[in-house]
Write a sequence for this structure.
């Protein structure tokens, strides 16, 4: 089912003529449908296509005529963890030597799914079927290819076959043992220390051979599985309520923050920062509703009208939402879209008539990242940023890699915000399906953040050299873990802030492990090295377990992050309750709620 909000054709924003054509690596029959921009096989289609792709458990590198497999080792430093690529096995064929002139000089992706990709090597008449999490690397050899070879950067110390010539055991001098299976008999041609060639031995009734290589003797797996994901609560307001004795202080801050809203004073045309200004104002409306200070809501509603509508109407000067038909995408990054969706959800809640008028445009913006439809009629790729194997999103895609050519994710909290905001939009429109999917994806993002980015004492996920100096992973990529953040922020307060912002009701579930929060705040230096904007997020975390001390620190702040306010920080502090009395909700990885769990079904195609 497509998350478009309408049964007929979804709304499309004005078209843009994007100068970058889809890469030559996609087969022509794939170009008629939206293409993935944050796929796990991104390195196969970016630049010259020969950077390794991590298809768990292997790093796989393609060249014009061969494919290399690596079972990677890890290089660990205090600030980084890298996977090291070495071509343990390289598979090629004899076709490249005799027919090179009539074939393409690069690989071609002929099909893909959330968990697999099919890689054709036209110059060698080889086709590789690569599946994430599978111990087997499968490839087929066409009838026109009489020979194929396997080479290594190491040395073959031993190899043997069964009597039917359909199973071979290969052992390398680095200790690796590989098993090779063939659907039809194959025989060894030449063998050397670093190369073994095979020839096919079959009758005219056979139509090729399929080989499977695996690095460990693992049981055969099934072709589908179910994942049951318990939701975290998606609510407009705080889950525990704001302490009534704090209402006057919050109202005073709200009066000042709302009075400072002026759309004409926003000078940026950046979708990211403009979106933060929108979401910041939307937070004020919800805080006011929660404490019954409704007289300021009309001013917030006016501001949201003035700031959101020009983007949706296409009248904003200097930027806008444009549809790129070549790729099937809207010209906005996921982080930025999350802030806009939050503002749209709140405005649709407090002004239902406006919400219905702009619903098609709101759903189109949402579907750019949360489309579930497939097929030629879909205008957007499926779940653009969310990785259904890793179960978290990737921020960087084909055009905005900051450090190296592969997908990365740094701000886990902004990833949560994308799907949390979409779920709120579902609540505003009475769309239970959207609310459920958004809630499920947000809960998976939270679980992934706690696992991969939160470095907790005693969990032994990362090597000691890295873990002892890092409480947060700066950014996670497919192959690497680094302590640094976007824009090369190095201060720990900035790292903390980028994993907290924006401060929302769902933030408490992202940081429900109080022991970890204590360690994280202690990790932040006591010396004041960054601006008030960053320190506000550190104090917010401190408020989880040391409420009164954090409150005094927040009251002393003079400036706030572009998406934050004093009102929001006071709301947060005054809605924190004694964590020692909160029960399992603050002791477990997940905070379960009364919502019905969502069931995700995966199938390997």
């Amino acid at each position: 089912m497509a998350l478009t909000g309408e049964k007929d054709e979804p709304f499309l924003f004005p078209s843009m003529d994007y100068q970058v054509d889809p890469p030559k690596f996609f087969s022509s029959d794939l170009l008629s449908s939206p293409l993935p921009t944050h796929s796990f096989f991104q390195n196969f289609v970016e630049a010259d296509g020969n950077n390794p792709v991590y298809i768990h458990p292997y790093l796989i590198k393609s060249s014009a005529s061969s494919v290399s497999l690596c079972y990677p080792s890890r290089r660990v430093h205090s600030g980084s963890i890298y996977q090291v690529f070495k071509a343990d096995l390289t598979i090629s064929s004899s076709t490249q030597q005799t027919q090179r002139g009539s074939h393409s000089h690069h690989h071609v992706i002929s099909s893909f799914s959330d968990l697999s990709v099919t890689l054709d090597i036209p110059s060698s008449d080889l086709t590789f079927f690569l599946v994430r999490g599978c111990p087997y690397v499968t490839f087929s050899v066409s009838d026109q290819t009489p020979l194929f070879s396997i080479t290594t950067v190491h040395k073959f110390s031993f190899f043997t076959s069964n009597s039917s010539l359909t199973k071979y055991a290969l052992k390398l001098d680095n200790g690796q043992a590989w098993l090779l299976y063939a659907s039809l008999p194959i025989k060894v041609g030449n063998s050397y220390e670093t190369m073994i060639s095979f020839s096919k031995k079959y009758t005219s009734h056979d139509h090729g051979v399929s080989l499977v290589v695996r690095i460990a003797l693992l049981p055969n797996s099934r072709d589908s599985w179910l994942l049951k994901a318990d939701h975290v609560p998606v609510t407009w307001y705080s889950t525990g309520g704001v302490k009534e004795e704090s209402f006057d202080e919050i109202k005073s801050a709200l009066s000042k923050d709302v009075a400072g809203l002026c759309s004409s004073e926003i000078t940026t045309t950046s979708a990211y920062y403009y979106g933060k200004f929108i979401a910041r104002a939307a937070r004020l409306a919800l805080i006011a509703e929660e404490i019954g200070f409704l007289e300021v809501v009309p001013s917030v509603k006016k501001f949201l009208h003035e700031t959101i509508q020009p983007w949706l109407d296409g009248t904003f000067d200097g930027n806008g939402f444009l549809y790129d038909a070549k790729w099937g995408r809207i010209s906005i990054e996921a982080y930025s879209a999350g802030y806009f969706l939050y503002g749209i959800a709140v405005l649709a809640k407090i002004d239902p008539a406006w919400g219905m008028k702009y619903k098609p445009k709101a759903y189109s913006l949402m579907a750019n990242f949360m489309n579930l439809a497939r097929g030629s009629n879909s205008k957007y790729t499926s779940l653009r940023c969310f990785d259904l194997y890793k179960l978290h999103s990737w921020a960087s895609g084909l055009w905005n890699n900051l450090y190296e050519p592969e997908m990365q994710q740094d701000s886990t909290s902004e990833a949560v915000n994308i799907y949390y905001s979409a779920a709120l939009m579902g609540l505003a429109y009475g769309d239970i399906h959207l609310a459920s999917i958004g809630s499920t994806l947000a809960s998976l993002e939270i679980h992934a953040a706690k696992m991969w980015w939160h470095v907790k004492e005693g969990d032994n996920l990362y090597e000691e050299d890295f873990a002892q100096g890092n409480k947060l992973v700066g950014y996670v990529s497919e192959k690497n873990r680094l302590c640094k953040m976007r824009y090369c922020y190095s201060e720990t307060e900035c790292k903390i802030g980028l994993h907290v912002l924006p401060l929302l009701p769902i933030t408490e579930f992202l940081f429900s492990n109080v022991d970890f929060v204590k360690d994280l705040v202690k990790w932040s230096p006591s010396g004041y090295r960054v601006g008030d904007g960053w320190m506000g997020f550190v104090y917010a975390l401190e408020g989880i377990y040391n409420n009164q001390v954090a409150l005094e620190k927040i009251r002393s702040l003079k400036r706030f992050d572009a998406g934050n306010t004093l009102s929001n920080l006071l709301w947060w502090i005054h809605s924190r309750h004694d964590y020692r009395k909160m029960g399992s909700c603050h002791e477990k990885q997940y905070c379960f709620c009364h919502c019905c769990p969502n069931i995700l079904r995966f199938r390997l195609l």
Remarks:
- The first strand starts at residue 15 and ends at 16.
- The longest helix spans residues 432-453.
- The chain has two domains: 41-131+135-220, 227-594.
